[in-house]
Amino acid sequence: MKKGIITLLFAAVFMTSCNSNSNTQTKTVNNERTVAGEGPIISFVETKAELDTITTTEGTQCTFYYTNTGDQPLLLSSAISSCGCVKIDWSKDPLMPGLSDSITISVKTQQLGNLMKAVVIKSNATNEPIVTLRMFGFVIDNKQNTIVQNIPNHEKNH
């Protein structure tokens, strides 16, 4: 009987000590649950933008909003586009947990017709260290009143 009680007591102490380290603290930021110690987490409102008609003389711009829903500072390390007609405006400063910021992409092109531009964002985010932002639309030459009809490639039916 003594051995049984000692064994039960030992098992109870052992199981309690194992469970004491498994408590995970969570917090909620902007209605998103995150686990403490996860690092920076990037959360975009949208990663795609459907643009209005773009003219060759005026161009256009689009702003993408994001929040650091993690528990450590978020740092965007690069914002890259393969096209010289794209200008990217983004903060190089760390974004503290719970705060929001934006990336503004400006496009001015002479190429008529379909427009699809992508910008690759690299960061120290633990959930998505690489995010691609996409802009779709069509370009007209307002000098000649030429309109080229566009259906973005991602919406075409085959």
Write the layout of secondary structure elements.
Blueprint: H1 2-19, E1 26-29, E2 32-35, E3 42-44, E4 48-55, E5 60-68, E6 76-80, E7 86-89, E8 100-107, E9 113-123, E10 130-140
Parallel strand pairs: 4-10
Antiparallel strand pairs: 1-2, 3-5, 5-8, 6-9, 7-8, 9-10
Would you kindly provide a brief summary of this structure?
Helix content is 11%, strand content 42%.
Walkthrough of the structure:
The strands form three sheets. Strands 3-5-8-7 form a four-stranded antiparallel β-sheet, with no helix packed on it. The protein starts with a helix and ends in an 18-residue tail after the last strand. 11% of the residues lie in helices and 42% in strands. The chain has one helix at residues 2-19; strands spanning 26-29, 32-35, 42-44, 48-55, 60-68, 76-80, 86-89, 100-107, 113-123, 130-140. The model is unreliable at 5-34 and 146-158 (pLDDT under 50). It has a single domain (37-155), classed as Immunoglobulins (Immunoglobulin-like, Sandwich), CATH 2.60.40. It is mainly β and 158 residues long.
